[in-house]
Amino acid sequence: MAVKPVVMAVSGSGAEVARRVADALEVPMFGREGRVTGADEVFANALDFAREMFAAGRPVIGVCASGILIRAVAPLLADKRAEPAVISISDDGAVVVPLLGGHRGANRLARQIADGLGATAAVTTGGDVALGVSLDEPPAGWRLGTPGLAQDAMARLLSGARAEVTGDAAGDATWLADLPAAGGGDAEIVTIHATTRPAEGATLTFHPQRYSLGVGCSRDCPPEELAALVSDMLAEADVAPGALVAVHSIDVKADEPAVIDLAQALDLPLRLFSAAELEAEADRLESPSEVVFAEVGCHGVSEGAALAGTGAEGKLVSPKRKTANATCALAMVPGVIEVPRGRRRGRLSIVGIGPGQASWRTPEVSRLVSESEELVGYGLYIDLLGPLATGKTRSDFPLGGEEDRCRYALECASEGRDVALVCSGDAGIYAMGALVFELLDRGSGEGGVSADARRVEVVCSPGVSALQGAAARAGAPLGHDFCAISLSDLLTPRADIVRRLNAAAEGDFVIAFYNPVSRSRRTLLAEARDILLRHRPADTPVMLASNLGRPEELVRYRRLDELQVDEVDMLTVVLVGSSNSRLAQLGEGPRMFTPRGYARRIDGDLREVGNRHLKGAPLQTYNDISSNKKGVRA
User: Fold this and answer.
1) Most exposed residue of 166, 370, 389, 495, measured as fewest CB within 10 angstroms of its CB?
2) Which domain holds residue 498?
3) Is the CA virtual torsion 347, 54, 19, 379 positive or negative?
4) Which helix (H) or strand (E) holds 383?
5) Global confidence as pTM
6) Residue 129: inside a domain
């Protein structure tokens, strides 16, 4: 799914232009709170909003001064090949300036906006301005076969060289027609090869994507077997991998490692067809098989998938080839295939958004949310995403509907969609991550999910957990061994919780208590306190942290023997120190930490130095000990 841009207006004077741009692009309009009226959504701070969207991989279109966008994204700039477009538009709509991502769609998007506004697109990248084309950004249906040669070729053309387009696909490369053509005179010639054949030597080469690759294989086929089969077929057909539009197969192979690895190795999308869709190609197959039909419901997987990938105009050019475990075939169309046919493999991203604030959310989580088509989760957690959730399909589930929530997300992804399952904190810590994998592990008769759902791609992305957030606010209470225990007996038998409490108390772990109380559960926290008091001092520090990372955040400390259940609710994380934990009394207030034993080690080192001195060895200073342990131990 292409990530949609965000359109933002910083002041009321730019609101009308922002609305026109947003409507033309069919995306929501965002406006500065208190300054812009008529916006679909509002933001509080322009720099924070633009930075968050950029970090999430969203193209940013700002009707504002260019400097605002530059200051917003400057700290995040790292790799121009991966950064999204950033475009500024003057408040009157007269000038559209692509600031970043010129060769990743910004120039094209700027021209599209300018055409709609009747404005000037202030494109500054040399190739676009002087040549009318960017050689490292070919149009849909074409692929750059020699990426390392594009920049040098553009530089030479800008310096006065002339272009000569050759190859079997030169007549179809009309997008190169405006380049300065070779003719008489002494000008240097830059040869550009447009061909479906593999690139040769140091020649800038573009491939028209005319071919559809169809593959099939047995379960757990060795990836190298399928890769070698395809490589041999392409070599025999004299077809470059860049002339392929996608790897196509039957949907039951969506999770087949050999097929997935092949698509990744070729840097191609994987597209899938149902058995019924492949059977619709039966009359065009050269090698129909009743055995294959009996097994998967169509008379040919590789040939059928290759033909389905090209559509009605396609023809087989390399019929089915096979090995013991794999098959492949190749089909071609006369022109180019701009958009791959078939269904994508669905993806479920299990994301932890931390406590909710954007600054505690990882860029990877923001990117996965941004790329998703649908958000699934408890409604409050989706609300905490703020602008990232705007314009996306969302499916809210109540507390208590966890299994329904995860099942829905998996089945939705099985339709070829990109779904994000939104959790607070870290999704793998007392959240939905484990339940997703439990559903995938169950059999069909044990309340599991459909076979299609079991084949989706599942991505897990870390988030800031409640215990990490609480520990950071406290200081460093997790500086030594620690554990986490949920005091909810809704899913875990009470006897098991008590057994774990006793073990953690005896082991002298720092403990983070999750789900400490609820309206109906009020006794286990007090019981945990009493168990711990049998193993550690009464003045052991306890931290109570509520609403971490939110405006209503509240942090306070108690002695273990003074911990009261009524001070705690479901939004509170309880951190109980070990017998070694303590509070450091600092100017800004107490900070909780648990030492690891460095003081004991330093005391030992000092004693060792003293012993060496008594034996006549040179005396070392404490700084020597700290910076050169080898000198002490030698």
Assistant:
1) 495
2) 467-593
3) positive
4) helix 379-383
5) 0.85
6) no
